[in-house]
Amino acid sequence: MNCKMKVAIVYASITGNTKELAEELFELFLAHSVEVTLYKIEDFPLLDLNQFDAIAVGTYTWGNGEIPTEMRGLYQAFELLGRKSLVTAIFGTGDSFYLRYCGAVDLFRDMLYVHTNLAAILKVELTPQDQDVDRCHRLVVAIVNRVQRIQHVANGLAGRH
Ligand SMILES: Cc1cc2nc3c(=O)[nH]c(=O)nc-3n(C[C@H](O)[C@H](O)[C@H](O)COP(=O)(O)O)c2cc1C
């Protein structure tokens, strides 16, 4: 499949679980010939948010189901941008020992659903396992299909003028 789309994966990770998931997604996007860039949250230029067709956000959960401090700027940037044609996905790792399992994923999900075109959600228990590869693959396909559909409609509209 040859897709003309620009995708960013932006993640926060302390002990490496979410990083592992982000790297798996990165490899899968590459396998779909997508132009994809992997960013740690501290390296992601928030002003470039609008330069991508799709953004996959990865986060661990902190405190009592909270979004990590370093992810809050990105959360607010999506709210401010409010671009319904921006395809997004939210993924993360958590520990079901806690009451709010992957609570940060849920908080991002609710916001991204309102302000962007949310295509996929993925929660993984701690370290990604073999069976999670298929779930990652489904997230990638959901994003690729959603962007292609948007581009198809946009090209159709452009052709009318
Ligand atoms: C102080 C602390 C609070 C946490 N709170 C939650 C929580 O509320 N919900 C949850 O699902 N996981 C919680 N976790 C688990 C982490 O989100 C989980 O270990 C995650 O995989 C860490 O991701 P990382 O390896 O990418 O840093 C907590 C972990 C710590 C140390």
Q: What does this molecule look like?
A:
The chain has 161 residues and is an alpha/beta fold. The chain has a single domain, classed as Flavodoxin domain (Rossmann fold). It has helices at 17-31, 72-81, 103-115, 132-159; strands at residues 6-11, 35-40, 54-60, 87-94, 117-125. It has a five-stranded parallel beta sheet, with helices on both faces. Strand 1, helix 1 (17-31) and strand 2 (35-40) form a beta-alpha-beta unit. The two termini are 29 Å apart. The mean pLDDT is 95. It binds flavin mononucleotide. Residues 13-19, 60-65, 93-95, 98, 100-103, 126 line the site of flavin mononucleotide. The site of flavin mononucleotide has 22 residues, from helix 1 and strand 4.
Can you give keywords for this protein?
single chain; 161 residues; alpha/beta; Rossmann fold; 5-stranded parallel sheet; 4 helices; 41% helix; binds flavin mononucleotide
In short:
This protein is of the alpha/beta class and 161 residues long. The protein has helices at residues 17-31, 72-81, 103-115, 132-159, and strands spanning 6-11, 35-40, 54-60, 87-94, 117-125.
